[in-house]
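Running log. JK asked me to keep both predictions on one page so they can be read side by side. First protein, sequence followed by its tokens:
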Amino acid sequence: MPVTNFTTPEKYQYLNGFQSYHETEAIPDTLPIGANSPQKPNHGLYAEKLSGTAFTAPRSENLQTWVYRILPSAAHLPFEKYSGYEAPTTVHQIPQQLRWDPFDLDEKADWVHGLKQLGGVGSPTTKTGLAIFIFAAGVSMPAQQAFSSADGDFLVVVQHGVLDIQTELGNLLVRPNEIAVIPRGIKYRVDLPAGPVRGYILELFSGHFKLPELGPIGSNGLANARDFQAPVAAFDDKEYAPGSWIVFTKYDGHLFSATQGHTPFDVVGWHGLYYPYKYDLGRFNTMGTTSFDHPDPSIYTVLANPSADFVIFPPRWLVGEDTFRPPWYHRNTMSEFMGLVMGEYDAKSGGGFRAAGASLHNVMSAHGPDADTHTKASNADLVPTKVGEGSMAFMFESPLMIGVTDWGLETCRKVQPEYNADSWVPLKRHFRRPE
């Protein structure tokens, strides 16, 4: 891709393509030719490298980006543990099926203070596992604060409101029915141009997301690489007083802060493969059966990783003949955390699974359609039917056993105690022994 020159950068222009090489500069002649770290970078800038993988990772998996900035990231005072954030001390591994009512908005919190860990497994110190968060914020981050996670990549699913995310590498505007992925270590701040926000986060401790292989599907379908958008370079060159900026970092689940006298958003140009990006879920090209049986949810995978896949259930046509169209009753070796961005999920009736709520069916926990949905689907006229119009449900699917925090089980006060009793206990026995 050729260099994009924006002498006066527009805030929301994007580079297209998933995990493809990008280069962008806000001032012409910022990016060097040849050496990535010349003796004296142009415009008096500093060269700095962001490494998202090991240096010796195979070329097809190697994610590195060079940035050219006004001052290097190392120019800050020592980090200190931040007392205004409580990291969960325990998670509870339980087989019980769980469902949560819609989570509350928090009109007083900003992005940093509105993060609540619902569950997780593994450890960022060994780069194994994941964490699941609910975010709810009502105010923008203060003008001279930034945040990053050294623990893992954030996959952000917006359910309500708009996130105006200023990252080191440029700006992303993320709305409901869109997602953003902010890689480990990238600094950013979040403004709320449309008021309070709420949504879900999957933090991936191990590796990075990729597009799933298409196999027999062929070269087109599911999420297309060209529909992912990365930011273009945009920078702040103001001079600030010593100690006037606060940079928060999440490190092993705890929050630390450091002060510095310059903005972290001073990257004038960058090139490489390691960067934040966004995706409009409405661009997903759904695959499905045209004969019989309900396909496995893997056909709805947007992004994949050995620790967790991100799967969506968008509006789609059901045309299978002589078949039970909703998901059948099942027990999986995978854990399934589901959320609802908008509308109603077609496999659950009665309003128990609502937008801004969630459910967790952990490893080998039995689940499936509730009694009403089973009755309707068993007797439905099997004509072509479009389901999910005006709806978007998603799933974080993981082979790992996901523990639930005290906040998720008790403090948030959103767990539905009658989930089992309302959903599956009413199922009736229909068996008759053949005579």
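And the second, directly underneath as requested:
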Amino acid sequence: MSSGRQTAGGPRWTQTWLGGARSAGADLGYPGERLGLPEQGSRAVAGYGRRLVALFVDWGLCMVISAFAVRVLELPGQYRSLLTLGLFALQAVVLTATIGMTLGKRLCGIRVVRLDGRPVGPVWALVRTALILAVVPALLWDRDHRGLHDRAANTVVINI
């Protein structure tokens, strides 16, 4: 019986399943290959970093606006978080449905597109945003860098 330690004959048995399919020698291709997208450049699948920066920019902007609104309208401070969430949802739905990107996405050079070539539209932008607000679906990604929110709306985030 093996103890799971490194042996002279090969690597530990955990190295293949902990490292994922690539460490086991599977060729999965580049993100977006299965979707017919290029590997690099314009229309390639956007990386995690750019998407995360865009999210922080959008959320930060909504925090600034809600803090200002709470002060100007003299609302109780506990409304600021709810207002931030509402503003984030509103801007994500409206801007993604109309132009395919939020301000943060624009600054990071990425946009949301539907795989069938049609505009994202208000219904799919609403579905996508609701799943982002639920947090967990947005954290579950496939090998094409699409979260469950993207898969549900049949969208992908690409470089401009």
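Observation for JK regarding the second prediction: The chain has one domain: 33-159.
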